[in-house]
Amino acid sequence: MSRRAVNRTLLGLVGLGLLAGGALVLLGGLDAYRHLGVTPPDWWPLTSPDQPVLSEASRTRWTDRDWWWPVAIAVPALVVAGCLWWLFSQLHRGGPAGVDLPSPAASGEPHFALHVRSRAVEEAIEAETVALPDVERVTVKVTGAARRPEVRTAVRLAPGADTGALVTAYRTGPVEHARRSLGLAALPAQLRLRGAKARRERSRKKAPRVQ
Amino acid sequence: MTGPESEREPAAEPVPESVHGSGPSEVEGRRRRAGRWLRSRRAVPTALVVAALLVAAGTLLYDVVAVRAGGQARPWRRELSEQLATRHLDDPWVLGIAGGAVVLGLLLLWLALARGLRGWLALEPRGAAIHRTAVAALIARRAQHRSDVHSWQVKVGRRRTRVTLTGTTDAAGAERELRAELARIPLAAPHRLDVRTKPVHERHHRRELAELEPPR
């Protein structure tokens, strides 16, 4: 699961929990069940506005069971462990230090392990991209993992750029060359185009001076 | 210079146009879904939620373990359980906090489901995207280069671009030119272009007009 999917799932779960809890309390507190004429099932919590949020009895209902204390300790411990795992995986966001090249030798035979620094790949793609027409500035970042690298490129367009031609040229030029020279089967590439700020010179087109 | 290239681009993919005639709704749906890959990673809101969870769960864990090891529960936990046991559901504090939880939950759900990256428009080969300000700059530049346009305003939305031109004498020609400029950008999702033209209010711009067209 990608980091984006993890983040969105986490946000969704926490949001659903907050929404469900708040809605239960609001429905009970505003006595919505009686106003709407709905009778909730017996096990439904928080039905009457006169009941406490969490009574002494319901708080200590399971404290004498065998499973209560292990669960009461394990659940917060799991939450803490998950949060720490998430934080440490986010700290790791710099991308791989280098790219592992697939070995040309068959498995089992002796071979050299080839490794290219990410900075070298980034510089090669930057140099080739900045030479394309309509490109003012390029920043390339290698992401993913060392065995399946990905490329993220941010480009600042020159005014009046031909975007379609640039996207095609980027695909067939720098990325394809990098993929071939690294010997990879695929090199997923992301491209982000920004323009120079639209300068609002209020149409100060001076009429040519006529003698 | 750009002539032959811009000619080649539409010729390279005539398929969408021809398919469009046979099943417009299907192709339209596919094009609407075209930019779905472009989704925000939601790093910042998730970091905030994780920090809050970590603090809450860590404090609770510490206290539960301390009680289990034979210590006393902290004052905050005794206070909290007492408040929960005495305050009823129709207490204003309880209702207010519940309302806040509902709002926060809706916000987090929206963050989890919405696409995000609202500034970016997806481009045709998957993986490329252009910022809305870049589209605005390209269109504004084309409007600026027309000699009859006095001033212009370009607003690029997520599904439509609105251009307001003042002072143009050839509205249809200007619109055709701007449409051609927008068509050069290979946007993945359908994008509308509305061009409005307004006359110049001479009273306010007499000096500028005089510069533009010196008296004969």
From TrEMBL, chain A:
Q: Which domain of life is it from?
A: Bacteria
Spans through the membrane: 67-88
The keyword Transmembrane helix belongs to this UniProt entry's keyword annotation = yes
Q: Does the keyword Transmembrane helix apply?
A: yes
Mind listing the UniProt keywords for this protein, alphabetically? Membrane, Transmembrane, Transmembrane helix
Q: Name it.
A: Alkaline shock response membrane anchor protein AmaP
From which organism does this entry originate? Kitasatospora phosalacinea
TrEMBL record, chain B:
Q: Membrane-spanning residues where?
A: 43-62, 93-113
Key word Lipoprotein present: no
| Keyword check for Transmembrane helix | yes
Q: Where is the composition biased (Basic and acidic residues)?
A: 1-11
InterPro entries in the cross-refs: DUF6286 (IPR046253)
Residue ranges, annotated region (Disordered): 1-31, 196-216
UniProtKB keywords: Membrane, Transmembrane, Transmembrane helix
Q: Where is the DUF6286 domain?
A: 103-197
The protein, known as: DUF6286 domain-containing protein
Q: Which species is this record about?
A: Kitasatospora phosalacinea
